[in-house]
Amino acid sequence: MPVLNRIAEFHPEMTAWRHDFHQHPELGFEERRTAGIVAAKLREFGCDEVHEGIATTGVVGVIHGQGGPNGRAVGLRADMDALPIEEATGKPWASTVPGKMHACGHDGHTTILLGAAKYLAETRNFSGTVHLIFQPAEENLAGGGVMVKEGLFERFPMQRVFGLHNWPGGEPGTFLWKEGPMMAAVANLEIELKGRGAHGAMPHQGNDPVVVAAAIIQALQTVVARNVEPVDAGVITIGCIQGGHTYNVIPETLRMLGTARWFLPEVGDLLERRFGEIIQGIAAAFGVEATHRFLRAYPATVNNPESTRLLLPAAEAIVGADKVKELPKPTMGAEDFSFMLNACPGSYVFLGGEGKAPVHHPLYDFDDAILPVGASFFATLVEQQLPR
Q1: Segment 219-256, tens digit of pLDDT
Q2: 3-state class of 97 per DSSP?
Q3: CA dist., res. 135 & res. 143, Å (int)
Q4: Residues 312, 354: one domain?
Q5: Which pLDDT score is estimated for 170?
Q6: d(CA 216, CA 219)
Q7: Do 251 and 322 share a domain, yes or no?
Q8: What is the C-alpha separation between 316 and 352, in angstroms, rounded?
Q9: How far apart are CA 68 and CA 224, in angstroms?
Q10: Which of 128, 240, 279, 307 is the most exposed place for a label (fewest CB within 10 A)?
C-alpha cells in the first residue's frame, strides 16, 4: 500500500503548514505561535481533547477511535522548536526571524503529526485512543524530560510511544530502524581556567591559560583512545575556546565548552571521572586554577525491541519492505525522546529525505516530499496497533 490516498490529497495543505512554520521559527520553550497554531488545527480537525501549556508550550491532542476510550492507547510525538542559526537557503519560505531557523526539520515533524491527526480524526478507523504529543525544546533544553516530569504518561496513559526524525542524505522515503541503543547519551562540558595575564612578549611574568588549555585538549583525546574499551563507543569534543582579545596579551582567564557522548552507563561514568581528573591534574601541574562541569543532558535513546518490531509492518505498508532497513550502527547524535522511552516502551525511527545539507546547517531545508510518507506511517501505525 502506498501513501494513504486521503493524506496524499491534502499534501499541498501540509506543505503550506510546513512553510509557515519554517518562516516563523521559535526556540525552545518559546514556541507560542507554533503551539497556538497546532492547538487550533487540532480543534479544527475535531480532536476529542486538546491540552495546552504542558512543559510551558507543549500541546497534547487526544483522539478516541470507534467506541470511545477502552484502555488501549498509543502516543505519537513530534518536536516543535528551531535553532539559533542564521538561515542561508534563500528559499521563498526562508526564516523571517534573524538568527533563528528550522535547521533540524522540526517544522516537518510537526506537520507530519498534524497530517496524521487530520486523517485519524476524520476516519477513526481504530479502537482505542491516540495521544498526539507536540513537544517543545528538544534542542539542548530537554523539553521531553520536562513533559515526563510534569506527568505526561500519568495524564495520558499509553502502552507505547513512537517518534520519527527526518534523515537528510538517506534514500528518500526509506525508514531506518534499530533495536536497542540508537542515539547516544550526551553531556555538556564547561571548563574555566584562571592564570595570570601578561604581555605576550614577556610570558615569564604571567601564567598562560592558553598553554594549559592546549594541554587539556590534547589529554582529553586520550580518554576514549586509551581508557574506553575499544569495542565500546565514546566521544569527547571541545567545540569552543574563549580567551584573550588581541595579538600580544596573555589573557588572565579562558573558557572552553564541549560535548561528551556515550551509550553504556559505565562509559558515561568513566568519561565524567577522567574529564575531571585530567583538568584538575593538568591545572595543578601548571599552577592555574580550574573549575569544570560535566552536565549530563540526555540519556541514550534506546528502542524497545518489541515496539520496534511492531512498527515495521506500518513502515512496510507505506513504502515497501525494500525501503525499511536496519540502521547499520547507532549514531552519536542525541535525542530527548530518550526521556519518553525511559518512561514508556516505544521506538524511534529515521525517515530518509532529500537534502543538500545536513541538519544544524544554515543551508538545510526539510524535504516536503516525505510529509505524506511520515503522516501515512503514523496513521497506519495507529490503525495496526489499535485494530477495530
Answers
A1: 999 999 999 999 999 999 999 999 999 999 999 999 99
A2: coil
A3: 7
A4: yes
A5: 86
A6: 5
A7: no
A8: 14
A9: 53
A10: 240
